[in-house]
Design brief:
Length: 561
């Protein structure tokens, strides 16, 4: 195997020492020129940013979606906050008026559990009106009191009304159910109880209640419009879906905090309201989540979009990095990587005790989808450049062949022994000049042969012999030529003999009744067997043969005399 490899290497090396063809050299030159132009074109496109057009389109699309998302969230959550404050003021005045008639101080409400059901029933019209006229998934009222104050787990009386058919974002036509509150109040208002209904709220599920109430008590100098609180996503016991809760304190004129009221933005409502357009990116989704450290805390946020992705991201913190600039890269543990953009959303006004809580809206998609979209943007351009390069190379091959074909035909005619003067003219002046020069040389050689055949004095013959003898021809070389002459076939020998008699190729074809292709075939074999490279070299040997024959005849005549 090694020997075969060495033999192949020697063969390639020997072929390389013979040089390359004109056609190959010209084609390589044109190909190099084409490749240089294509590379320059690619460089210009790269500088112009054409290869990043897919990324730029994706960036523009995502930023546009984020602009709409953040604007819609700011408007909707802001409007809901304003209506929540108005609802709190109405309920606070109504409850304060009721307690005044009952001769109970607001601070002593917890000591009169017998008043709670009637007090809650009086707030039902305002709560229903707020629920039906606002974009929300539910409305609630929670008091800092309980019908069962001695229960093992601290409970709180209140109402929670749910819109259980959020199949439309509209506020009319949705079916209402009661999740928390006295059953009699629900029946009086023709509201069905949910299967997960409970009469009161438990302390474990209302930590947001404690935060909102305690903060309003500590910051009593602030107006009500600065004291509302948006809780992170949570799931009440028995509720079928989680949501964000707007909690507004219920504050009487003497500063007593009776409880909270507010609205729920359910996960279903968020999905129906803020799902991004998935016609371009099938798995794109939007997020509203609190920002903690360097990530989005998905436990406390809401998502809208692909349900599989929603469940996959839930319960994880998406770590943010800038590896995919201009996009952020979000890593969700083992769930995969995502790329997208985000923007801070203000849920609280300046001066709010919760203004340090940062929320962000984001639009993102799986990272592999983004990369595929970026590649798709330039795939057509890459294919176009590839086709252009291929067509240019084919054109280079065609032009090279058309350019070099007349030269090759002329060289083939010279190799086949055709007369230089009989060869057709080309469109290249240099080749025509060469043919004229060779024809003149051929005529000079023919004239010398004719003189060599005529009788001359020994001195003149000797001079002619020296003139006709090729300068690089020695006896050994001539003897080798004679030995090679014996290897010619009979047909090749007949062609050679006619060359000795100064026949042209077309004359040989006519004399032997052969076609020109057959004569060319014999010429190739004759040149190969006699180890000559051109007709001129062959004629040199023939002249030398004539000189040898002339000298032998002269020596024979001298011997006879």
């Amino acid at each position: 195997m090694v020997q075969d490899a060495l033999a192949l290497w020697k063969k390639i090396k020997a072929k390389g020492e013979r040089g390359t063809t004109l056609y190959l050299r010209l084609f390589v030159f044109f190909a190099f020129f084409v490749v240089a132009l294509v590379l320059a074109f690619l460089l210009i496109l790269n500088i112009a940013g054409v290869f990043h057009i897919g990324i730029h389109k994706s960036q523009a699309w995502f930023e546009n979606e984020l602009e709409h998302l953040s604007q819609d969230i700011s408007n909707d959550y802001g409007n809901l906050s304003v209506h929540g404050v108005n609802l709190s003021e109405k309920i606070s005045k109504s409850m304060e008026s009721y307690l005044k008639e009952a001769r109970v101080a607001p601070s002593g409400l917890a000591d009169h559990p017998e008043l709670l059901e009637e007090l809650l029933s009086l707030q039902m019209p305002d709560l229903l009106s707020a629920l039906q006229n606002n974009k929300c998934g539910g409305a609630f009222l929670i008091l800092d009191a309980s019908v069962i104050p001695q229960a093992h787990m601290r409970q709180r009386a209140g109402l929670f009304l749910k819109r259980t058919e959020p199949n439309t974002v509209g506020t009319m036509g949705s079916k209402l159910h009661c999740l928390r509150g006295p059953a009699n109040i629900a029946r009086e208002n023709s509201i069905e109880l949910l299967g997960q209904w409970q009469m009161e709220f438990t302390g474990s599920e209302t930590d947001f209640f404690s935060l909102a109430v305690e903060t309003s008590r500590k910051r009593s100098e602030l107006p009500l419009s600065r004291l509302y609180y948006w809780s992170p996503r949570r799931l009440l016991s028995g509720n079928s879906e989680a949501g964000m809760l707007l909690s507004v304190p219920l504050i009487t004129s003497d500063g007593t905090v009776l409880g909270i009221c507010g609205f729920e933005v359910s996960s279903m409502l968020f999905k129906q309201s803020y799902s991004p357009d998935n016609s371009v990116y099938a798995r794109v989704f939007s997020v509203l989540a609190p920002v903690k450290e360097s990530g989005l805390h998905m436990d406390g946020g809401l998502l809208a979009g692909n349900s599989y992705l929603n469940s996959a991201l839930g319960g994880n913190i998406a770590v943010i990095s800038e590896e995919d600039a201009p996009f952020n890269r979000y890593r969700s543990g083992e769930q995969g990587d995502y790329s997208g953009v985000q923007r801070t959303v203000r849920l609280y006004p300046a001066g709010s005790p919760y203004q340090e809580d940062i929320w962000a809206a984001a639009v993102m998609a799986p990272r592999e989808d983004m990369q595929a979209a970026a590649r798709k943007g330039i795939l057509g351009l890459q294919l176009g450049i590839g086709v252009l390069c291929l067509l240019s190379l084919l054109a280079a091959a065609f032009v090279s062949r058309r350019y070099i074909l007349p030269v090759l035909k002329t060289l083939e005619g010279i190799k086949n022994g055709s007369g230089y003067a009989a060869l057709p003219k080309t469109q290249y002046q240099e080749i025509n000049d060469l043919l004229e020069f060779l024809a003149a040389q051929d005529e000079a050689v023919s004239a010398a042969l004719a003189e060599a055949k005529t009788g001359k004095t020994p001195a003149s013959v000797g001079t002619e012999r020296e003139n006709l003898k090729p300068p690089d021809l020695d006896p050994e070389q001539y003897q080798r030529f004679l030995k090679c002459l014996e290897t010619l076939s009979p047909a090749e020998r007949r062609v050679f003999d006619l060359y000795v008699r100064e026949y042209r190729a077309k004359d040989i074809a006519a004399e032997l009744h052969l076609s020109m292709n057959t004569v060319k075939y014999h010429n190739g074999n004759i040149y190969g067997k006699l180890e000559v490279g051109s007709r001129k070299e062959l004629l040199s040997y023939i002249r030398f043969m004539h000189c040898q024959q002339k000298r032998e005849e002269e020596e024979h005549d001298e011997h006879l005399s």
